[in-house]
Write a structure and sequence with these properties.
Layout lengths: L2 H8 L7 H13 L16 H8 L4 H18 L6 H27 L15 H29 L4 H31 L5 H25 L11 H4 L10 H16 L11 H12 L5
């Protein structure tokens, strides 16, 4: 189902209504998948495969990002007085922490050197949650395409790909929950406070866009440029050559596929797919 069709379906409920709140919380709680990172049986890799995996430059950035996100989301549960939404945000915090634990387990098993980042302490619950959420909207969208690229190119062993499949799908759930939570949160504010909330969201989005533009401009020009916003630049490290045009096509297709299985009454992320669709149309296929 396309993003446009999903948003037409969403008109069947009033965004911000008690029904919207209940559907949002129930969707997230019901689609949780249980697994324990510490119990995963990691596949044995040939030394060349292990070295190739260890040589990817974004492990430290990935560990640091999950550290910030997991602590931010866990703290943000305090924002909600509604028991259902609070439980959903608490569960998302648990899942984000589980991603961090999964990275620790992987890097430890395959002898990939990463430093343990200091615990991140959120300063402003709402602003930090918004910043982390909008950041995930960008990062997860590109992660969908990168994962498909790595899977289809055979760059990673199939058993390793299978381990990370539920992690990537969780990211789809997270951004779907977040965009609906933002709209619900705004609807609960007094009318005179809503423009300020919109402006704060717009400012955070602009900062996220600016960071991605810096990364895109640095790709291929600055050593180590793949560290910041690693999901945007990581395609350079994969074995199969791919243009940005092709990567955008993969991201758009995977985004639609991963969102299609969830309740069509919920809003779908629109900003990042719309930006990507525009770039896909205007960029030459050779880029």
């Amino acid at each position: 189902m396309s993003a446009t069709s999903a948003n037409i379906e969403a008109a069947k409920i009033r965004i911000g209504s008690p029904e919207h709140r209940q559907i949002l919380a129930r969707f997230f709680l019901d689609t949780h998948v249980d697994y324990v990172p510490e119990q995963i049986q990691w596949p044995a890799l040939e030394e060349a495969e292990r070295a190739r995996l260890a040589g990817l430059p974004f492990w430290q950035e990935a560990v640091s990002t999950e550290n910030v996100t997991s602590n931010t989301v866990a703290a943000a549960a305090q924002l909600e007085s509604d028991a259902g939404l609070r439980a959903a945000i608490e569960l998302q915090g648990f899942e984000e922490n589980r991603h961090a634990r999964l990275l620790v387990a992987l890097t430890s098993h395959y002898r990939i050197a990463v430093e343990t980042p200091p615990r991140f302490e959120p300063r402003s619950l709402e602003s930090d949650f918004l910043f982390a959420g909008f950041g995930e909207c960008f990062d997860s969208f590109f992660a969908f395409g990168l994962f498909a690229l790595a899977r289809d190119s055979g760059y990673f062993a199939p058993r390793l790909v299978a381990i990370f499949e539920p992690v990537i799908q969780e990211e789809a759930r997270h951004i779907l929950f977040f965009v609906n939570w933002v709209r619900y949160r705004r609807s609960q504010l007094r009318r005179w406070k809503r423009p300020g909330f919109r402006l704060r969201c717009a400012w955070i989005i602009c900062k996220q866009v600016a960071a991605r533009i810096r990364t895109a401009r640095a790709m291929g020009h600055e050593p180590g440029a793949s560290g910041e916003n690693f999901t945007l630049s990581a395609h350079q490290e994969l074995a199969a050559p791919v243009t940005l045009h092709r990567l955008l096509q993969l991201c758009l297709g995977e985004n639609d596929r991963r969102m299609a299985g969830y309740d069509s009454r919920l809003l779908r992320p629109r900003l990042v797919p719309s930006l990507a669709r525009f770039l896909y149309r205007v960029l030459p296929a050779s880029i």
